[in-house]
Write a structure and sequence with these properties.
about 15% strand; alpha/beta; 11 helices; six-stranded parallel β-sheet; Rossmann fold; two-stranded antiparallel sheet; 2 domains
């Protein structure tokens, strides 16, 4: 027996009709249960601002006051490094640092300046066991970094050395990659880039000191090179400071056969041009 829907005139077999009906019922029940679960959870534990703890009416995020202290990076910016600039020169908006020392990546971008609420949130992720905040940052990164994504983009996180990973219990950059993968469906590789040598902390080092500190710290194992070869790699990290880390990683990824490397971070340190050139 067949059934004819009057609206589309499409002829359905009874089996197809039953399958479609059950799919609709299942979807509706799932939506109802999910909505009920969220309502119950919000009633027991009201959503709160991730920084100051103020109760929110909707899902957890930031309250108005904390949101206002987010320093969004707006144009003009260097088309290569993402560094804010004083004058917009269109396609020629490239900072002196990027002209004098062209980086091994194609372009880098970050939605926030590392200051105010953005810096506080990143510190909570790194030092207060809040990897869940990656799901808050990821949409902002995608909105800002739309130019770096292509159909064959491969997300790769900046890795931690195993001892630091053991101490911290998670790699914050890898959590970001998982969140970006969930939103876009683009491929990811959490193991293609390895940190093979422990290094001292970068805090307080000059750009030249950071480069020396990172020399030989990363590697792309031979068995993972086929994942990289010919791909448009998006290297993901939390903060871009002098660029020494992402430059070292980008250089290795290019040597491993990546067609191009772009860099996407949550925030970047905005510093005077003369410091970047040094």
């Amino acid at each position: 027996m067949t059934l004819v829907t009057k609206k589309t005139k499409t002829i359905l077999s009874r089996a197809d009709f039953n399958a479609a009906f059950m799919s609709t019922v299942t979807t509706s029940l799932t939506t109802l249960l999910t909505t009920g679960w969220r309502w119950g959870l919000n009633a027991l534990v009201p959503p709160a601002c991730s920084l100051c703890g103020t109760f929110l009416r909707t899902q957890a995020g930031l309250c108005g006051d904390c949101w206002q202290s987010l320093g969004f990076i707006t144009g003009p910016i260097c088309r290569v490094s993402g560094q804010p600039m004083a004058v917009d020169l269109g396609a020629e908006t490239i900072s002196p640092a990027a002209r004098v020392h062209p980086p091994p990546y194609r372009m880098a971008g970050a939605p926030f300046a590392y200051d105010g609420s953005a810096a506080d949130l990143i510190k909570r992720v790194k030092f207060r066991d809040r990897p869940d905040l990656a799901t808050y940052f990821a949409p902002h990164m995608l909105h800002f970094g739309a130019d770096v994504l292509s159909p064959d983009s491969l997300f790769v996180p900046v890795p931690l050395h195993r001892w630091r990973l053991l101490a911290r219990r998670f790699n914050q950059s890898a959590e970001l990659v998982r969140a970006l993968n969930e939103l876009t469906g683009h491929d990811m590789s959490l193991t293609a880039l390895r940190r093979v040598r422990a290094t001292r902390r970068q805090l307080g080092l000059t750009r030249a000191g950071r480069k020396r500190n990172l020399r030989g710290a990363f590697a792309v194992p031979a068995k993972y090179r086929p994942e990289i070869a010919g791909r448009s790699v998006v290297l993901v990290d939390y903060v871009l400071t002098t660029g020494a880390t992402v430059e070292e990683c980008s250089r290795l990824l290019r040597r491993a056969g990546a067609a191009q490397v772009d860099v996407l971070t949550i925030a970047r340190v905005v510093m005077p041009e003369q410091l970047i050139l040094s």
